[in-house]
Amino acid sequence: MFKKVNNIFLVYYGSFNAKSGSNVHILELLRNLKKYTDIVLFAPGQKSVNRSLAGAKYVPVIDNKYLVQPSYELMLSFYLLYSCIKNRPDVLYLRQNSFPFFPIMLCKILKIPSIVEVNGLVLDELKVNPNSQSFAYRVFSYLALCSEKFNYKHCDRIVSVTDKLKDELVRLYSVPESKIHIINNGANTDVFKPMDSRQTRKKLQLDESKKYVCFVGHLAAWQGVEFLIQASPLILEKCPDARFLIIGDGVMKDKLIEITSELGVSDKFTFTGRVPYEQVPFYINAADVCVAPFIKERNSRIGLSALKTYEYLACGKPIVASSIPGVHDLIESSGGGISVTPEDPEELANAVVRLLSDEKARAEMGKKGRKYVVKNHSWDGVAGKILEICEDIV
């Protein structure tokens, strides 16, 4: 099917020690690209990383939060150079995070076609990161900004996950539009699929008589979970049997728990902490409504292609999500949910109440959402689009 592409190097700078959307993304790409071509994944090899993943080369690093990325960049240069000499790839595919320089530099020297995948911008991350004023963070951010400029200029193609992000790459870095391809994120539609809610609630030891509102994701400031918590008293006023499942971990967790206590709703919320990837579909399927209350800062300018929204829909669940570019488009195209004004607890509450009160609407939206994601946003489809770009530059 993709005869010109026989070997791809997939280079990743994220840590597999923590559950994150970027880890899910890269592992799904690896799994699905393998169906069509040989692929090798390069990733940081902290001591605690599970090394059972086939097709991965774990590069030794200094296991310290300040030294992991610099040591990875240094050691990766040797690993990549040796691997390129021994088994030259047809294409090198780099996910832009941290501050990679060497992979694209090596591609320029050895004339290996390269693709850089972009999911966000350093300047936007700085605005919402609570550590953004620390000296170490500012140094790393400066390096990351320099890396963005270098890689976007010298790679052969860029994969952007949203239209808005593409526009920002053109505006900020003067990248030619023709160089950028838009490929949204996807869902594993074999893992994230509709299940019997009674069985999943029983499995998770949840009260089957309640109605559940579910959020899944990294508990970072830009996710806007605090607005769901602020909306909860309004939801409980009209739906007293509502309960809230917060699936995930992150820097905001303690603060969010504190807010539930201040509002007197802590007994209505369950914070599960980190949950294994394969268990997440059970929580989604146990819910009646799923939410993605993203804030405006960081999200509105570049848009979002959030994994959680595709996974909610793949499970056949209606979603209530902030009207952010990318997310709003997904809801409109799929018919799988309701868009609300970001950072508006009252509007968020009204939308959740509307769905909790209308089982028929929930079922109809869920069916439409599942059908749309299976057709348009499976990871197999994402892999196919990437391979088409690879074929074009080989």
From TrEMBL:
Residue span(s) of domain Glycosyl transferase family: 198-371
Glycosyltransferase subfamily 4-like N-terminal domain residues: 20-190
Keyword Chloroplast set for record: no
Gene Ontology terms for molecular function: hexosyltransferase activity
InterPro entries membership: Glyco_trans_1, Glyco_trans_4-like_N, Glycosyltransferase_grp1
One family name in Pfam for this protein: Glycos_transf_1
Enzyme Commission code: 2.4.1.-
UniProt keyword annotations, A-Z: Glycosyltransferase, Transferase
PANTHER family linked to this entry: SULFOQUINOVOSYL TRANSFERASE SQD2
Protein name: Glycosyltransferase
Lineage: Archaea, Methanobacteriati, Methanobacteriota, Stenosarchaea group, Methanomicrobia
